Amino acid sequence: MKNTVLLCLFCLTALGIKAQDPQMFEETWYLRNVFFDGSQTNTPLNENFNLTLTSNNGVFSFSANGVENELSGAVNFNGQTLQFQDVSATLLDCELANCDYETLYFYSVLSDNLSDRTFNYTVDFYNSGNAQLRIYNNTTGVRAYYTNKPLAVNTALFQTWYLYLMRSDLAPDTPVDPSLLRQVTINEDLTFTAIDNCAELWGAFEYYEEFVNGFYLQLLTIENDVSDCTPPSGGMLYFGDENTPLTAFLETEGETQRFYYDANPGFGWYYKNNLLSVEAIALEKIKVYPNPVKETLQISSSEMSLTSIEIVSLQGKVLATFTDALEQINLSHLSSGVYFIRLISGENSVVKKFIKK
Q1: Mean pLDDT for each consecutive 10-residue tract of the chain (357 residues)?
Q2: Average pLDDT value for the chain
Q3: Would you state the pLDDT for residue 278?
């Protein structure tokens, strides 16, 4: 009988271990944000808030770093839930800038003033080597989001960016006239200064990110000076608001870097780190219509001449190339669907999307 009981206990322990993804215990989980009392608070930059889970012969424990102190205790797994138990914290004096975030993380999120906290959890591992861990309690609304890589801002963000294009849902793209200077300079402390034609703007962002959505810039403060605008000029630059974070991306093409963000799906602002040439601006202004198109696509390029046009699939395959009679393109051979048209003039080109009926 004794052997049977021991065997059953061994089986239950083994099942408990098997229920956890062993990779969970091989990572240091870096905190990206917490949600408590109805609001999300992002992890301060240049701090090492994290969570480490440990498995030792079926006994689970955790430790978490703050600014000055450490939180630790036992972990009990039950299916897709975990509970932090027997929680204790070191008691070093913390008088630095982000000690309030340490208090929030230790005493309101991971524990209830050192009492046990129970969470559901999900963990995802990607082929890229990235991973994310989410712990959440739907009853209390408390949750935390982690990744397996520390938060690090791409330093390419910290430079001057020149607006060259605006996108507004289903409306035609709006190229920006380079004679009306519209630019933003983002500094390493995430403060920024901007010129919007005659207006000057300045303020500060908060930075946070997730693997699947690029990164986010949340506007913290903004001020402006429109005293040089006579009459007042409508601004084109938009940096979100306290309720609308910007979903942003950085990319590099040759020597040109691009920075673009969406405030809402379909509404985007596109920047480059160099001023556009007059030829490139003229190319952006070319009109392609009707869209959707049934058979013949019209190309209006009065300000410059095109050397060739390419029709490209969504997969990037060039389906057709035209070098003559570029004012009208016959697309009757295409199946219904979404395509790109690449307009080429010398060394400059622009890509636009169209729908074939």
Answers
A1: 42 43 90 93 90 94 96 95 97 91 97 96 88 94 94 89 86 76 89 87 87 80 79 72 85 86 86 75 81 92 82 82 89 89 82 85
A2: 85
A3: 65
Architecture of the domain made up of 282-356: Sandwich (2.60)
Fold of 155-276: Lipocalin (2.40.128)
**DSSP bridge partners of 115:** 112
Torsion sign over Cα 18, 20, 23, 25: negative
**CB atoms closer than 10 angstroms to residue 155:** 8
**pTM, full prediction:** 0.62
The answer, yes or no, to whether the previous bond of 231 is cis (omega within 30 of 0) is: yes
d(CA 297, CA 114): 67
Domain ranges within the chain, ordered by starting residue:
2-147, 155-276, 282-356
Q: Which residues have a Cβ under 8 Å from the Cβ of 180 and sit 6 or more positions away? A: 197
Measured CA to CA, the distance from residue 243 to residue 216 in angstroms comes to 12
pLDDT of residue 266: 77
Got the DSSP string for 225-272? E-TT-SS---------BTTB-EEEEEEEETTEEEEEEEEETTEEEEEE
Give the distance between the most distant pair of CA atoms in the chain: 94
- Assigned CATH topology for domain 2-147: Lipocalin (2.40.128)
Tell me the pairing of strands 215-225 and 174-175: unpaired
Residue 259 carries which side chain, given as an amino acid letter?
F
Whether 155-276 and 2-147 are alike in CATH topology: the answer is: yes
Q: Which residues contact residue 157 at a Cβ distance below 8 angstroms, ignoring those fewer than 6 apart?
A: 186, 250, 259
Coil, strand or helix at 312:
strand
Tokens of 252: 């590099």
Bond prior to 265 in cis (omega within 30° of 0): no
